[in-house]
Amino acid sequence: MNIKLPRRIDKRITEEYGAYLAPNRGKERVLYVPQAMFEKTMYALTYQMKGDDICYYCGNPLTSSTRSLDHLYPRDYGGISVPNNLVPCCKDCNGKKNNFTEEEYYRFKSVKYDYELKKAFLEKISKKHEELRRKEGIILPKEWYTLQRDYNVLVQINSTDSYKKTSQYIRVTELYETYGSICKPVVITSNHVVVDGFLALMLAKNLPNKVKVPFVTLDNVIAI
After folding, report:
1. 82, CA 20 to 30 Å: which among 89, 162, 193, 214?
2. Which of 81, 128, 80, 82 is nearest to 103 (CA)?
3. How far is residue 214's CA from residue 199's CA, in Å, rounded to a whole number?
4. Alpha helices per DSSP H over 64-152
5. Which is it for the CA torsion 151, 128, 43, 51, positive or negative?
6. Best CA proximity match to 77, nearest among 149, 133, 153
7. Is the pTM value of this prediction over 0.85?
């Protein structure tokens, strides 16, 4: 997938995070970004392109104390941190949206004052999410990712086993044991550098059998 990019990057983003835009052999512009600064750069680009003063959901003004970024496809279900999936919003709306997708949230808002409709809607969404967990592991547009068993083509990552004790790795492992799927996408740049989902990749590599792993390839991003 291609991430959304501005015509120009704010000078501050380049100075703080080392990211910059450049033409790729005369074709589309490509974002060059240090691997360690990927997520911070994505947040900064989202604010640059979508603003930081109005909540996407309720339209109320944002301040430094109320401002946040929401994942349209929730992070708990595989939502990735790229401008395509991020919107500025107030913390109140962010909390209310919780683990709904954008579409689900608006549908929930339309029935939330009717107890029976609300209950039926929540049960339907919960069942839908469970089914998707078992089938694909994540909830993302199909065109954003591919399920792959051949993931040894990626660059090698040196690491000790200390990551296995982290709460994030334990969570990814528990989800796999529950649903039989890797429930976190591995996000890689066009030059095969992992910028998100490292622990999901490590879990897949540690399993005795090759399992399908959801991969999101950012075609217009190069890690430096």
Report:
1. 162
2. 128
3. 13
4. 91-97, 102-111, 115-135
5. positive
6. 133
7. yes
pLDDT tens for each residue of the chain, 224 residues long: 999 999 999 999 999 999 999 876 666 789 999 999 999 999 999 999 999 999 999 999 999 999 999 999 999 999 999 999 999 999 999 999 999 999 999 999 998 788 899 999 999 999 999 999 999 899 999 999 999 988 765 555 555 678 888 999 999 999 999 999 999 999 999 999 999 999 999 999 899 988 999 999 999 999 99
Which residue, among 30, 28, 4, has the nearest Cα to 19 in the 3D structure? 30
- State how far the alpha carbon of 93 is from the alpha carbons of 49, 54, 126, in Å: 20, 12, 20
Closest CA to 9 of 21, 18, 23: 21
Residue 56 has a CB neighbour count (10 Å cut-off) of 20
